Amino acid sequence: xxxxxxxxDIEGTTSSLSFVKDVLFPYAADHxxxxxxxxxxxxxxxxxxxxxxxxxxxxxxxxxxEIVSVLLDWMASDRKVTPLKALQGLIWEQGYASGDxxxxxxxxxxxxxRAWQAAGIALYVYSSGSVRAQQLLFAxxxxxxxxxxxxxxxxTRTGGKRDSTSYARILERIGRAPAAVLFLSDVREELxxxxxxxxxxxxxxxxxxxxxxxxxxxxxxxxxxxAFLARSSSR
Length: 235
Description:
By secondary structure, this protein is an alpha/beta fold.
């Protein structure tokens, strides 16, 4: 079956792992306490803080310092917790707006995304970062605002990335047959989950990653993904 849509991961796939680890995470950690103090009464921030308290099992009346400490601990251990990811996204929004950093993309990514979208392939993102964080990254790249190229964004509200049912939910949302969707990631367990749901998979071996990825074919960059698509369409 011809590939009609591409679902892509971000970290290690479209964007450097070091950008998230060395730029985004430290920025969020440094700005989190002041952000909570300044914005705690805003409805969306108050909602995510309440969700974080519930997730952590804290009393609803837990102090601001207690919840900030929990959030920083989650950040340090890279917990994939939805309220944390949402609050990080809000902090990064300020950073992008002030020009403190740009969203990093590997050089091959933007040209290939534009070419695939122009060829009629629908593009989607599925990342553990919040949808807002995903949109901000692609909106503030050195290649310009790439968000119009995408037909949809998915985060952990859809489910865990190593859970096959998450990919089934995405297929239902986008209305595509499993074999018509290609999933791109640098994490074998995510690729396994997607394959279990029937998606086609392709592993990215960027930045010296040479895992065998089991039965999943692998490429080094998006130019090789383009070659894979060309071969698939000619069959």
